[in-house]
Structure formats: structure tokens, C-alpha cells
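Q: Given only this backbone (202 positions), what sequence would you predict?
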């Protein structure tokens, strides 16, 4: 009986490996294809929305802020679609296959692993709130940096005329340091989350 379970486990493991080897590149291609089309549509819609905005909007909002939304914010979204979405899809497929396989072998172990997966999901949700907050701060500060760069380019003759390069550089450097600090904080949270996920995964 035990030998039969071992053979059954080997067959399930090999089948899951073969199935995963076939499906992973297919899913990866489909995810990247959908992400690319989605980002193309988003860029077109954002540009069309900017064209239709009233003139008063451009009087109230700095051109650097608008440029930041068209570049930094969309780049952040693209990173999510191309990287995080594919990882999430693979993790879901891999998790479902693993849970189903474990239920065939030993349902009690499968229940334990399922509960562990739920706990991991809750931890990730809690961490995601902090990561989202830090991400919003970083995007705002990147927008501020873009505004300062636009101001510098537009007022470069005045800056040179009155020799205020040091003051402009100091303001830019201050904003840049704030972005760096927030990025380091986000990196620390991501590292801690990765360590927790690694611990539960093993």
C-alpha cells in the first residue's frame, strides 16, 4: 500500500512537472501579450483624455506633474503588468496544482498547506497596504522632481543670469534624497515580505 502511494506520488509529481513545463511559457506569453496591449490602450486613452481636458486644468496643474503621470505612473503600471501579474498567475496555477495533488495523496496535509497559503495571503495583503502607501509617496516625489526639471529647463537663462544654480541644485537634491529614502524604505519592506514568503514557502 505504501509502495503504491509512493508510485502514485511520483506519477503526480512528474505529471505536474511536465504540465507546468508546457503551460508556463504559454501563460507567460499570454500574460505579456495582454499586458502590452493593455498598456498600449491605457496610453492612448490617457493621451486622449489629456487632449479633451479644459484649458483651466493646464492652468492649475504644472506641466511637470502631467509629464510625470504620462511617464512615471504609466511605467509603474507597466512594471506591475509585466512582472507582478505574471508571478501572481504562475503562483496561482502552481498552488492549485499542488493543492489538488496533495488532496489525492493526503488530505490532512493538503488542508494544512491550504491554511498556510491563506495565512501567507493575509500577510501579503497587510504588507501591500504599506507598500502601496510608500509607492504613492514615491510617485508624488518623482512628479515633484519632474516639475523642478521642467522649471529648470524653462528658466535656465534666468538661473544663469542671477547665478542661482546652487539654490536650484539644493532644491533638486533635497527632492531626490526624499525619493531615495522612500525607495529604501520600500525596499526594506519588500525584503521583509520576501523573507516571510520564503519562510512559509519552505
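A: Predicted residues:
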Amino acid at each position: 500500500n505504501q509502495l503504491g502511494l509512493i508510485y502514485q506520488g511520483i506519477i503526480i509529481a512528474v505529471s505536474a512537472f511536465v504540465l507546468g513545463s508546457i503551460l508556463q511559457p504559454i501563460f507567460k506569453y499570454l500574460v505579456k501579450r495582454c499586458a502590452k496591449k493593455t498598456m498600449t490602450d491605457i496610453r492612448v486613452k490617457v493621451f486622449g483624455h489629456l487632449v479633451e481636458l479644459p484649458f483651466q486644468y493646464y492652468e492649475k496643474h504644472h506641466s511637470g506633474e502631467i509629464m510625470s503621470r504620462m511617464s512615471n505612473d504609466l511605467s509603474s503600471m507597466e512594471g506591475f503588468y509585466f512582472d507582478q501579474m505574471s508571478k501572481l498567475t504562475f503562483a496561482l496555477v502552481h498552488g492549485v496544482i499542488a493543492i489538488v495533488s496533495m488532496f489525492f495523496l493526503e488530505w490532512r496535509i493538503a488542508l494544512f498547506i491550504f491554511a498556510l497559503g491563506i495565512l501567507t495571503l493575509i500577510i501579503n495583503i497587510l504588507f501591500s497596504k504599506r507598500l502601496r502607501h510608500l509607492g504613492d509617496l514615491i510617485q508624488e516625489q518623482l512628479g515633484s522632481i519632474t516639475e523642478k526639471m521642467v522649471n529648470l529647463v524653462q528658466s535656465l537663462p534666468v538661473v544663469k543670469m542671477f547665478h542661482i544654480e546652487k539654490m536650484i541644485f539644493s532644491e533638486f537634491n533635497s527632492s531626490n534624497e526624499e525619493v531615495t529614502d522612500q525607495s529604501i524604505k520600500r525596499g526594506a519592506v519588500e525584503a521583509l515580505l520576501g523573507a516571510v514568503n520564503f519562510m512559509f514557502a519552505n
